[in-house]
Design goal:
single chain, 443 residues, alpha/beta, Creatine Amidinohydrolase, Chain A, domain 1, Creatine Amidinohydrolase, 2 domains, 6-stranded mixed sheet, 33% helix, elongated, Peptidase_M24B
Length: 443
């Protein structure tokens, strides 16, 4: 990578296919996306940052970057070019209204195209600047769990402590919850971009799981995955997790994920993937059944299993309300599952041997700012984020796995994965796009 900032590198990779092939009149899509990103940034800093700083008792937030080592939040804060070290500084000077914004050692044409900062200063002025504002608690990006809040390297931390001096350095505190709140709360512009990312995601994957792409007996799971990646390239999009995970659920062996396994009639296929559009990421799954000659629908046992999984998804939606912690919401749905005859709480990809019960695994996690996001999470693999409260604007990936016996597979338990993305509102969880409601059919 050149000396241009890594925070802008991802953006320009996403825009490059649109710009490279565009005639002057067609370059409007690249500019439209840039303007949309700029508005998302402005709204985040104007509307979300003040409440996040004040709720967490942070008087000043210092985000440090250096060439070749961006903080994970740098792009959202405006990106820009940093020669040696640069700082984004946010100061709550009044306790109400907007947050003062200063950029030190950060510039460049792209940075200037989206003006966000009140002051543009030299990094040499950092100590004098902080002393003049005399903040009691200075948030810095060090964290115990959330990676997007852990961007301050050891050397940058040492440099910051030395530059500030002992009195100011004693006021440094982790900004982990602040970063989570800033990233996980969204304005209307952000929610609109998230919904668009969802539409890209589902449209591409549902085309991939069709006869447009799959020729039973010829097409491999890997070829389907790379067809999907080519669509991202054509449309100037990024992805959440790299190559889409495509594999066979049964009835035969799964084979290598997104590899050389040839898709055959009678296979049940699943895709797990996500799309990145601007600052927003999705995480979703889809399933498809490859019809055998003479078939018009999946086997009855497979369809019953899918329908039962939809019922469990309804249980999850029923417990999601703003104001409760994500962990309490998970505990409530787990209780409902455990009290339902024929269902037990299970372990991922390790179902019980009891053919009389179906195993349920729920891992509904935060999403939006990443495929696995930074906010409140109804998933026990995010223990800290389970303590955070759901609120209007929280983005969640509603993810579950059901393992249930299927007569057509000799009584072996079938795995039904469901995952789609939505936004918490005062009414509960509302989908950001049409969620999965059926098993797709490949003819």
């Amino acid at each position: 990578m050149s000396s241009k900032r890594r925070s802008n590198h991802i953006l320009w990779l996403a825009l490059l296919p649109l710009m490279a092939a565009a005639l002057p009149g067609q370059a409007q899509e690249a500019k439209r996306r840039w303007d949309e990103m700029c508005q998302i940034r402005k709204d985040k800093l104007d509307l979300i940052l003040p409440e996040a700083m004040r709720e967490n008792g942070i008087d000043m937030w210092i985000v440090a970057s250096r060439e070749g080592h961006d903080d994970p939040n740098a792009a959202l804060l405006g990106g820009g070019y940093v020669g040696d070290v640069g700082y984004y500084l946010f100061t709550d000077r009044s306790g109400s209204g907007r947050i003062e914004r200063a950029a030190m050692g950060i510039g460049g044409a792209a940075f200037d195209q989206c003006p966000l900062y009140d002051l543009k200063l030299s990094p040499a002025e950092l100590r004098k600047f902080v002393e003049a504002r005399d903040p009691k608690r200075i948030g810095i990006n060090i964290a115990s769990e959330i990676g997007t809040a852990d961007g301050l390297s050891q050397s940058l931390h040492a440099r910051l402590v030395e530059t500030l001096g002992p009195d100011l350095a004693a006021r440094l505190v982790p900004a982990e919850k602040l970063v989570s709140d800033f990233r996980a709360r969204h304005t209307a512009t952000g929610i609109a971009a998230f919904a668009r990312a969802g539409e890209y995601s589902r449209t591409i994957v549902e085309r991939a799981l069709s006869s447009e792409v799959i020729r039973p007996g010829h097409t491999t799971t890997g070829e389907v995955a790379w067809w999907m990646m080519e669509r991202l390239h054509e449309q100037g999009l990024g992805n959440s997790f790299g190559l889409p995970s495509i594999y066979i659920l049964g009835p035969g062996e799964r084979g290598q994920v997104s590899g050389d396994r040839i898709i055959q009639p009678g296979d049940l296929i699943t895709v797990d993937w996500g799309v990145n559009y601007l600052f927003y990421y999705t995480d979703m799954k889809r399933m498809a059944y490859v019809l055998k000659p003479g078939e018009t629908a999946p086997p009855a046992g497979v369809q019953r299993a899918f329908d039962r999984a939809l019922g469990i998804r309804r249980m999850i939606l029923d417990v999601i309300r703003p104001g409760v912690t994500a962990g309490d919401a998970l505990a409530a749905v787990n209780k409902r599952v455990a009290e339902t005859p024929g269902l037990v709480l299970g372990r991922y990809d390790d179902p019980s041997k009891d053919p009389k019960v179906s195993d349920v695994v729920i891992g509904s996690h935060s999403v939006g700012d990443l495929g696995h996001g930074s906010g409140p999470s109804m998933a026990d693999f995010n223990p800290l984020r389970m303590t955070y409260r759901l609120r209007p604007g929280t983005m969640l990936s509603i993810e579950l796995f059901l393992y249930t016996p299927v007569p057509e597979w000799g009584g072996r338990k079938i795995k039904i994965p469901l995952e789609d993305n939505g936004v918490v509102t005062d009414r509960g969880l509302e989908w950001a796009y049409p969620p999965n409601s059926r098993i797709l059919l490949v003819r």
